[in-house]
Design a protein that fits this description.
- By secondary structure, this protein is mostly helical.
- It has one domain (about 5-200).
- It is built from nine helices and no strands.
Length: about 200
């Protein structure tokens, strides 16, 4: 199984929550959390039945398609109309993110694209994502344990990586303050593209 639990991820979530807590949009969290948690349960059930390798390429192609659609929306702002603000779109992205985080630990790019589609300012995007992923990663703990993804060596590795996570949080906070909104969104889309290619290949 290539999906995994990382304690250092939760440490990073806590750092991001502390740094951007004043920018959190709680209505967005309330909107996305139910479908995402449902997706996590669905992903857990899928992993108990089938190997994650069966789903990773499909998730990658779905992610790549979403990136292309977002690129079209950037080039042609009227493309897609009000779809990003619809409840159906939120639920589809939330369930997809939940399945992806359980199967391949790949919910980050999906959520990033969703919030970019909503045209959230970068501070709001990070502050909202931080709380959302903190809740998601804590919720995943018992499911990860049931799948045998929690091991003492990996937890010790997480502990050793914590100082790097703290340094990365400081660097990231400084970068966010200086980078323009458009450049920030471009970096997120490039990162999402790299994640999609990794899943596909």
């Amino acid at each position: 199984m290539l999906s995994y639990f990382s304690g250092s991820t939760i440490v990073g979530d806590l750092c991001a929550v502390h740094s951007f807590r004043q920018h959190t949009l709680w209505p967005q969290i309330a909107r996305m959390l139910p479908p995402t948690l449902i997706g996590i349960v669905a992903g857990f059930l899928l992993m108990r039945c089938l190997p994650d390798a069966s789903f990773r390429p499909l998730l990658g192609w779905m992610l790549m398609s979403t990136i292309i659609l977002q690129g079209l929306r950037t080039a042609f702002p009227e493309f897609g109309g009000r779809i990003p603000n619809s409840l159906a779109f939120a639920w589809a992205m939330g369930i997809w993110a939940g399945v992806s985080t359980m199967v391949a630990n790949a919910a980050g790019p999906i959520m990033a694209i969703y919030f970019i589609a909503l045209a959230l300012p970068k501070e709001n995007l990070i502050g909202t994502s931080a709380w959302l992923f903190l809740i998601i990663n804590v919720f995943k703990l018992p499911f990860s344990a049931a799948l045998g993804l929690l091991h003492a060596p990996s937890l010790l590795l997480d502990l050793s990586l914590t100082p790097l996570v703290l340094v990365g949080n400081i660097m990231g906070k400084t970068l966010v303050r200086r980078i323009p909104q458009r450049a920030f969104e471009t970096l997120l889309l490039l990162s999402a593209t790299a994640a999609a290619l990794k899943l596909i290949l």
